[in-house]
Specification:
The chain has about 475 residues and is of the alpha+beta class. Helix content is about 65%, strand content about 5%. The chain has helices at about 5-15, 45-50, 75-90, 90-100, 110-115, 120-140, 145-160, 160-170, 175-185, 205-230, 230-275, 275-295, 300-310, 315-320, 320-335, 340-355, 360-370, 375-395, 425-450, 450-455; strands spanning about 25-30, 35-40, 55-60, 65-70, 195, 200, 400, 415. The strands form three sheets. It has a four-stranded antiparallel β-sheet with strand order 1-2-4-3. A two-stranded antiparallel ribbon has the order 5-6. The two termini are about 40 Å apart. The relative contact order is 0.10.
């Protein structure tokens, strides 16, 4: 088995293939992709980038050249890549990137996502531990250990608002610890002594949304103070006002408003599952691949986090994960029918394990989008898989996830059923959804996803989908 490529080596290999440091205008990453802005795309040695062992796929949009490296890998390669740029060009790249990202509204959703993406490893770890604790409780095994596992799993979620506040201030240019300090007000037990408009506040009211708003306000107050408070008094006045003013606004306004929004999100999810489960699952499962293609799926992270914090799991993620099942089914149909396309079959063989584990970009950008119609039939598979999960949820067998990030087979350890644990029924419903997505994606692609030209011409592919 080939040893994993060193992140520094990968970064050093990719930089010259992208035209060198002076051709890079911006650098960012999401869960799976290294995103770079380019001055001149003709300088990119695209074939060599795609051929690199660490690269799972490449996609280009109007703004960025996106290299799919996979979860975990991209988080390690990106800092090494940025370090190489800084070494080669000093701070110019960082300044250019900040100016580029300063366009009002252009990257707002991405900035909000950047607050939550660093929390995903902790959500995954704590979610798996919570699932293990629930399983042991259901089986009545190790009763002396389960309280400790529950405490380990719950500690992070009890204080997640503080981490959201810290990351929000960091992302929006404030002092991170001050953002965390303001957000900590939300989870402080003593808020029960505060009454607002006749309502007694409760610890955690407003949750991550309240923490996000509180820390964003704290950042604005801090920046205002930095501009106006005399330097001699800054060290005392600025931190005090940054915590005091947003803290009071949080207590007497944001906690109530954000609490109402959080409750509405939870009620909406419950209503969808209870009253329109099949239809909602069909629509959500069918539309998720286009959202992933456009990078807009990150806007759902705060909603998932709110549901996990409020209800212990997000019922949306298992439904959305069906989009990946449709993609796998579509790719399998392409593999079986296009036996003459050795290039596509090679790509599918290398990308299928990642697809089964919920990392869909290699199959999207390497197979279905270049062919065009299989991308649509993959969405059909995702729609039917999501409809299956939604229907069973509506009938009394909801499936949730205790964390965000993984999907596909990797979601099994994080499953959360209506009884609070990963029961056999919950596993069976989720497995049934995956199977539905696989089969429907396969059949839709087999019968409708491949035109005659693609089937008969070894070199023919449809134009990439827009």
């Amino acid at each position: 088995m080939t040893a994993p490529t060193d992140p520094g080596t990968t970064a050093a290999a990719l930089l010259p293939l992208l035209g060198g440091a002076d051709n890079i205008t911006s650098v960012a990453h999401c869960m799976t992709r290294l995103r770079v802005g380019l001055r001149d795309r003709t300088r990119v040695r695209d074939a060599e980038v795609r051929a690199h062992p660490a690269v799972l796929g490449v996609v280009q949009d109007e703004d960025t050249y996106q290299i799919v490296l996979g979860p975990g890998t991209v988080a390690r390669v990106t800092p090494e890549f940025e370090a190489l740029l800084v070494t080669a060009r000093g701070e110019a790249v960082r300044a250019a990137q900040k100016a580029r990202n300063a366009t009002p509204g252009k990257l707002f959703l991405r900035r909000v996502a950047n607050v939550f993406v660093p929390l995903i490893p902790a959500l995954i770890g704590c979610g798996i531990i919570a699932g293990l604790a629930g399983l042991l409780i259901n089986l009545r095994w190790l009763p002396g250990l389960t309280p400790a596992l529950t405490a380990v799993a719950s500690g992070f979620m009890a204080l997640i608002a503080v981490f959201v506040g810290y990351n929000t201030a960091k992302e929006f240019g404030g002092t991170p610890v001050l953002g965390g300090a303001v957000a900590a007000v939300i989870v402080y037990a003593g808020v029960t002594n505060v009454h607002v408009l006749g309502h007694q506040l409760a610890p955690g009211q407003g949750g991550v949304l309240g923490a996000l708003a509180a820390a964003a306000l704290a950042t604005r107050v801090e920046k205002w103070c930095r501009r106006r408070v005399p330097e001699a008094l800054d060290v005392l006045v600025t931190p005090t006002l940054t915590v005091l003013v947003p803290g009071l606004v949080t207590l007497f306004g944001l906690m109530l408003v954000a609490g109402a929004v959080s409750t509405a999100i939870g009620d909406a999810a419950d209503w969808l599952l209870g009253n329109a489960g099949a239809a909602a699952g069909f629509v959500l499962g069918g539309l998720f691949l286009p959202l992933v293609m456009l990078g807009l799926h990150q806007a759902l992270i705060p909603i998932h986090t709110t549901l996990i914090e409020q209800q212990g799991s997000t019922v949306l993620l298992p439904i959305l994960a069906m989009a990946g099942a449709g993609q796998v089914g579509a790719a399998a149909a392409v593999y079986v029918r296009l036996r003459h396309r050795t290039d596509l079959r090679r790509t599918i063989r290398s990308a299928m394990p990642a697809g089964l584990l919920g990392v869909g970009e290699p199959l999207i950008y390497g197979v279905s989008l270049p062919l065009g119609r299989p991308f649509v039939t993959a969405c059909v598979g995702g729609a039917f898989g999501g409809g299956f999960i939604g229907l069973l949820g509506m009938l009394g067998d909801p499936v949730g996830s205790t964390a965000i990030g993984p999907s596909g087979w990797a979601l099994f350890p994080l499953l959360h059923g209506g009884d609070g644990g990963p029961a056999l029924t919950t596993v069976a419903v989720y497995a049934g959804g995956l199977l539905t997505g696989y089969v429907t994606g396969f059949l839709a692609t087999w019968f409708f996803g491949l035109g005659e030209a693609v089937l008969t011409d070894p070199a023919a592919t449809a134009p990439p989908a827009p």
